[in-house]
Amino acid sequence: MRNIALKLMYNGTAYHGWQMQRTEASVQETLQRGLSMVCGERVRLTGVGRTDAGVHARAMVASVRLDTDLSPEEIRDYLNRYLPDAIAVREVKEAGERFHARY
């Protein structure tokens, strides 16, 4: 299992913040769905923090543990292909074992 760091940007107009919501669309949910499509398994993405509904980000950091042979560049490119135009993954890097976006 690899520890992956993502740097992303998004226009939050259509989202009810970063964090998963029971009844509303969120950035985290949308990214997790895209990562699941790329990797073929359910994933749990952790963001550096939370944002309110409608908030935009230029350099949000998130981390996720993935079991994939794809390179960081392939993960980025596939994700950007699956994600809506309002969300873009700018960078994907292999992170150290102890890296966690929130800490």
Characterise the protein shown here.
This protein is α+β, with helices and mostly antiparallel strands and 103 residues long. It is 23% helix and 28% strand. Strands 2-3-1-4 form a four-stranded antiparallel β-sheet, covered by helices on one side. The model has no long low-confidence stretch (mean pLDDT 93).
Terminal CA distance: 20 Å
Global mean pLDDT: 93
Count of helical stretches: 2
Low-confidence stretches: none
Secondary structural class: alpha+beta
Shape designation: globular
- Work out the strand percent: 25-35%
- Measured as a percent range, the helix fraction is 10-25%
Order of helices and strands: EHEEHE
Task: Outline the fold blueprint.
Blueprint (H helix, E strand, L loop, with lengths): L1 E9 L16 H13 L6 E2 L9 E10 L5 H11 L4 E8 L9
Antiparallel strand pairs: 1-3, 1-4, 2-3
Helix pairs in contact: 1-2
Main traits of this protein?
four-stranded antiparallel β-sheet, single chain, alpha+beta, 103 residues, globular
Summed up:
This protein is an alpha+beta fold and 103 residues long. Helices cover 23% and strands 28% of the residues.
